[in-house]
């Protein structure tokens, strides 16, 4: 589980991140990056899989768990690339990412973080 201080929770924070419109996409996962930070504040991450992606909550939650765990491992390894320049990150999963296994999801998350 991602430590509490690294989680993006508030609705206003999600809206502000989407409003910036700084994003990149790869393999069924889209990464939205928020405002660039000026001071030493922790970068927070949120994970979203919409109901339109799949009808079953079990499938949606599995994809969110895979994305969270891969981000947590990269955070633990301190291998987050350029993503530490931003206040918030939102990972949005789509139906293309539902069939992927953990290794592919981790590869996608790592590349998205390097690209941003």
Kindly estimate the percentage of residues that lie in beta strands according to DSSP: 15-25%
Provide the CATH topology.
Ribosomal Protein S5, domain 2
Termini separation comes to: 23 Å
> Order of strands side by side in the largest beta sheet?
1-2-4-3
Q: Tell me the name of the CATH class.
A: Alpha Beta
> What would CATH call the architecture?
2-Layer Sandwich
Q: Which term fits the overall shape? A: globular
Helix content: 25-40%
The largest pleated sheet is described as: 4 strands, mixed
Overall average pLDDT: 92
**Structural class given helices, strands, pairing?**
alpha+beta
Low-confidence stretches: none
Tally the helices. Answer: 3
Write down how many β-strands occur, each being a DSSP E stretch of 2 or more residues: 4
Q: Give the topology string: H per helix, E per strand.
A: HEEEHEH
Q: Compute the gyration radius: what is it?
A: 13 Å
Number of domains: 1
Give a verbal description of the structure.
It is a single chain. With 116 residues, this protein is α+β, with helices and mostly antiparallel strands. The chain has one domain: Ribosomal Protein S5, domain 2 (2-Layer Sandwich). Helix content is 39%, strand content 19%. It contains 3 helices and 4 strands. The protein has helices at 11-20, 57-77, 102-115, and strands at 22-26, 29-33, 44-49, 88-93. Strand 3, helix 2 and strand 4 (88-93) form a beta-alpha-beta unit. Helix 2 packs across helix 3 (102-115). The protein is globular. The mean pLDDT is 92.
């Amino acid at each position: 589980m991602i430590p509490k201080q690294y989680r993006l929770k508030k609705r206003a924070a999600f809206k502000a991140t989407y409003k910036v419109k700084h994003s990149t996409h790869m393999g069924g996962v889209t990464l939205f990056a928020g405002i660039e930070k000026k001071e030493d504040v922790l970068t927070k991450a949120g994970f979203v899989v919409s109901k339109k992606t799949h009808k079953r909550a079990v499938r949606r939650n599995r994809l969110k768990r895979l994305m969270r765990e891969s981000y947590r491992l990269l955070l633990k390894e301190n291998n987050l690339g350029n993503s530490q320049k931003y206040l918030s990150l939102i990972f949005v999963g789509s139906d293309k990412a539902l069939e992927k296994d953990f290794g592919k999801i981790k590869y996608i998350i790592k590349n998205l973080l390097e690209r941003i």
